[in-house]
Amino acid sequence: MNDTAATPEGASEGEGGEHGEPSGQRCGLVAIVGRPNVGKSTLMNALVGQKVSITSKKAQTTRHRITGIRTLEEAQFVFVDTPGFQTRHSTALNRTLNRTVQGVLADVDVVLFVVEAGRFGLDDAKVLALLPENKPVLLVANKLDAVTRRAEMMPWLKSMQERRNFAEFVPMSAQKMPEVERLLGIVRPYLPEQPWFYEEDALTDRTDRFLAAELIREKLFRLTGDELPYTSTVVIDKFEEEGHLRRIAATIIVERDAHKGMIIGDGGERLKRIGSEARQELERLMDCKVFLELWVKVRSGWADSEEHLRSYGYE
Ligand SMILES: Nc1nc2c(ncn2[C@@H]2O[C@H](COP(=O)(O)OP(=O)(O)OP(=O)(O)O)[C@@H](O)[C@H]2O)c(=O)[nH]1
C-alpha cells in the first residue's frame, strides 16, 4: 500500500529532450470522476485554487469543457469535466451519458477516481466500471478527516486494490490545502512531457474569457430547453479589462434562422434574459462589474466546416 508518488509506466516517453531542448514542460488532461457528493467540486476548486466549475443540465454543453487549469512550476494540469458524473440522479447514468463519459475519458492522460474514504457502494462501482482500462486511474479516498476509525483504512484500501489496478492510492481531505498540494505532486509524473496548452497565467486571463463563453453557452442551453441543437456555439469577440470592469462582447453562432429566432425570443426577451443571467453570474464569478453585449449570427453549416471548427477553438 503506497500512497506516495511512484514513477508511472510510460511517463518516461519522450523524455530527455531529443532535440537538445531541456526536458521541461509537462501538460496533460486530468479528469475527476466519482459518484455524487464524494467531493469532486470541492477537490477541483482546491486543485485549481479558485472557484471555477460551472454546472449545466444539458450534457452536450459540456462537450469540451475545461473546468480549471493549474500551472505549477513546469507542469500544467488541465482539468476536464466529465458530464454524467455531476448528476444527483443515478438513473441519468444512462447509455448515452456513459458514452459521453467514455468519450471524454478516452482523451485524458490521467483519471482521479474520487470515493469517500472507507466506503465503496454500488454507485461507486458503477462509475468505476466506466473507467478505461488503459489509463492510469488514481484512487482518491477523500474525506479522510471524517474517518474516525483509522485502523479500518488499511483493510479497506486492500479491498480497493482488488477492484482495480489503481496507479496510486491517495487517502486525503479535499478541505486541507497541504493534502491537495500533495495530490498535485502525485499526479504530476502522469502528465506527458509536452509544451503547455495554455499560458502560464491562464487562470487570470484566458480562463476568464473561456469561462465567459462557457457561461453564456450554459445559459443559452438552459433557457432554450431542448429546442436548440448543441451545435450552437459562443465566440467571445471582445474581452477588455478596465480596472474593476470587464467589457465583454460575444456572438452566439447558430446554424439556421429558426434557431436565431428561438434564441432572440418574442421582442428579444429571451436573449435579454440569457445576457442578464450570464452577466450576473460572471460578476459573481469574477468578482467585478461586467458589461455584456450579446449577438446572434447564423453561420450555416459551421459545424461541418473544419476551418470554422478550428477558428472557434474546437480542434
Ligand atoms: N469532511 C469532509 N467533507 C468534504 C470534503 N470534501 C468535500 N466535502 C463535503 O462533501 C459534500 C459534497 O462535496 P461536493 O464537492 O459538492 O461533491 P461532488 O462530488 O462535487 O458532488 P456532485 O456535484 O453531487 O457530484 C460537501 O458538503 C462538501 O463540503 C472533505 O475532504 N472532508
UniProtKB/TrEMBL annotation:
Residues 81-84 are annotated as: G3. Residues 26-193 form the Era-type G domain. The keyword ATP-binding does not apply. InterPro entries: G_ERA_dom, GTP-bd, GTPase_Era-like, KH_dom-like_a/b, KH_dom_type_2, KH_sf_prok-type, P-loop_NTPase, Small_GTP-bd. CDD domains: Era, KH-II_Era. Residues 216-300 form the KH type-2 domain. Residues 1-11 have a biased composition (Low complexity). It is a peripheral membrane protein. It is found in: Cytoplasm; Cell membrane. Pfam families: KH_2 (PF07650), MMR_HSR1 (PF01926). Residues 34-41 are annotated as: G1. Residues 142-145 are annotated as: G4. It comes from the Bacteria. Belongs to the TRAFAC class TrmE-Era-EngA-EngB-Septin-like GTPase superfamily. Era GTPase family. Monomer. An essential GTPase that binds both GDP and GTP, with rapid nucleotide exchange. Plays a role in 16S rRNA processing and 30S ribosomal subunit biogenesis and possibly also in cell cycle regulation and energy metabolism. This is GTPase Era. It comes from Aquincola tertiaricarbonis.
